[in-house]
Amino acid sequence: MASFLMVGAGLSGAVIGRHLAEAGHDIAVVDARTHIGGNCHTERDPETGVLVHVYGPHIFHTDDAEVWDYVNAHATFLPYKNRVKTTSRDPEGALGVFSLPVNLHTINQFFRRTLRPEEAHAFITTEQADTSIADPQTFEEQALRFVGRDLYEAFFKGYTMKQWGCHPSELPASILKRLPVRFNYDDNYFFHRFQGMPEQGYTAMIESILDHPRISVTLETVFDRSQAGDYDHVFYSGPLDGWFDYELGRLGYRTLDFERFTYQGDYQGCAVMNYGEVDVPYTRITEHKHFAPWESHEGSVCYREFSRAAEPGDIPYYPIRQVKEKALLSDYVARAETTPGVTFVGRLGTYRYLDMDVSIREALDTARAFAADLGAARTP
Ligand code: FAD
Asked: 114 CA distance to ligand 1 centroid (A)?
């Protein structure tokens, strides 16, 4: 049997490692951090006892029944719907709290109307949308074309500028693909069939995935490429450009800073409150105890979230994937494809934003294809 190294104890490394361990191989997992779980890591806040999503809020949602069964085999999932609120100013300049994604409630509250679905659709598409924009090229043009200036400025512009650090006129129209508005009162952020939250958090779930006699986990260990030769193959879920020592340049990321504060009682009444105003420096506040409404905590812990361009040494969160980065990415991908003995996996290894269910799906597919190739190579 072979021995494999997983660089990274996040979902990608854990799921691939587990599959290959079950096929009888020895798996060493290393992670630079003090904990497993990657960016899905959850831990108890020592002061309040609240389960905290350390690297930002994570809600599990999928249409993939096999992935849903997989996570349910490793954790008890409780029903959870993501219902996001946002502060913003209405057309008269009054500050209010509105429902996201923009839905019939948001529209009626914002414009002080009592429109029914078809009336709201007609109002937005004929009275608000800027139909003079025939072929939108930028995010801003696309938003103006779809929803008009009032909704764009209140709900899209400020948040986008803070999140991406640039004006929406510098972002491609493709970011807003469809009419980003619902003409009913559905405020469930995701459309997926299966949604929930692991009762004991994601780290407990990933601990269960890694709990196999053939898997060993070593934390606080930065992978060194000279170790690769000790294994039959490496699965690398670290940054793609990092593997190549950033020789061609750095792939751009946005990073996040979290400013923690505590509160006695209920600070904001929901898990996630966005701040649409451009003059508020943070994008949102997460109040973690609302992710586990089945728990009871007097104290509360909240994170104010700030977004900025990642510098070397920062945690890479969101790949920027603009024209410049895509060109550099294709150069690194060309190198990766001709590098033997390693498979680049996960959100950092492939430089893509991947939801958890997609990370698991891709990890299962990668592990299966690899195991099949291994079997074929052994068949005389
Ligand atoms: P990671 O979780 O990043 O794990 C990679 C691991 O590799 C890390 O632990 C890192 O320390 C380690 N590593 C890297 N380089 C090295 C090295 N050289 N040596 C040793 N160790 C190394 N998905 C959802 O489905 N729902 C959500 O609500 C959601 N919210 C999100 C919010 C934010 C802010 C972000 C950024 C992502 C969110 N996601 C969400 C996506 C989710 O975080 C990813 O799908 C998941 O983390 C991918 O797992 P991974 O194993 O590929 O990567």
From this structure: 43
Residue ranges lining ligand 1, Cβ < 6 Å: 7-13, 30-33, 38-40, 56-60, 222-223, 237-238, 317-318, 346-348, 354-357, 359
- Pick out the chain residues at pLDDT < 50: none
Residue 279 lies in a domain: no
Q: For ligand 1, atom 15, which residue shows the shortest CA distance? A: 238
Q: How far apart are CA 306 and CA 316, in angstroms?
A: 14
Gap between the Cα atoms of 231 and 282, Å rounded: 44
CA dist list (Å): 127 to 100, 117, 121, 200: 21, 15, 10, 48
**CA angle at 216 for the pair 214 and 219, rounded to the nearest 5°:** 165
Asked if this assembly's ipTM is beyond 0.90, the reply is: yes
For 165-202, the pLDDT digits (tens) are 999 999 988 888 777 899 999 999 999 999 999 999 99
Task: For residue 40, give the DSSP letter.
Answer: G
Number of independent structural domains in the chain:
2
Alpha carbon of residue 123 to chain centroid: 33
157 lies in the same domain as 214:
no
| CATH number for position 347 | 3.40.50.720
